[in-house]
């Protein structure tokens, strides 16, 4: 069984982003957040570790959409970014490291 995580921070990123996103894109992000919560994200999505912050990970959702999360404690995580790949902080370095 996968480890379960609690969302403990970064909901302001979700609130801001979801106010301008269409329903289909919101569903994709919500699905990824549930995968982080139930621990299946590493099996279900392409995930890259942030090379500058090893506890932070990029979840690649679509060719133009990424979710960045930080595992802030053993059982919790926070949202750090939701949006386009080209604006994701640190994603270029993570991609270069693969």
Q: Topology, pairings included?
A:
Elements: E1 6-9, H1 11-18, H2 23-38, H3 41-44, E2 46-49, E3 56-62, E4 65-73, E5 76-83, H4 91-97
Parallel strand pairs: 1-5
Antiparallel strand pairs: 2-3, 3-4, 4-5
Describe the structure.
The protein has 98 residues and is of the alpha+beta class. It has a single domain, classed as RelE-like (YaeB-like fold, 2-Layer Sandwich), CATH 3.30.2310.20. It is 36% helix and 33% strand. It has four helices and five strands, in the order βαααββββα. It has a five-stranded mixed sheet with strand order 1-5-4-3-2, sandwiched between helices. The termini are far apart. The mean pLDDT is 91.
| Biggest beta-sheet profile | 5 strands, mixed
The radius of gyration over CA amounts to: 12 Å
Give the CA-CA distance, first to last residue: 28 Å
CATH topology assignment: YaeB-like fold
Weakly predicted, low-confidence segments? none
* SSE pattern, N- to C-terminal: EHHHEEEEH
The global form is globular
Beta-strand percentage range: 25-35%
Number of strands: 5
Structure class: alpha+beta
Indicate the mean pLDDT. 91
Name of the CATH first level: Alpha Beta
């Amino acid at each position: 069984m996968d480890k379960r995580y609690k969302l403990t921070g970064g909901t302001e990123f979700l609130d801001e982003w979801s106010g301008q996103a269409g329903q289909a894109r919101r569903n994709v992000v919500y699905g990824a957040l549930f995968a982080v919560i139930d621990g299946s994200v590493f099996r279900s999505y392409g995930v890259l570790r942030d090379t500058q912050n090893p506890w932070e990970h990029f979840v690649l959702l679509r060719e133009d959409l990424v979710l960045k999360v930080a595992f802030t404690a053993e059982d919790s995580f926070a949202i750090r970014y939701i949006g386009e790949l080209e604006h994701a902080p640190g994603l270029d370095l993570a991609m270069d490291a693969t």
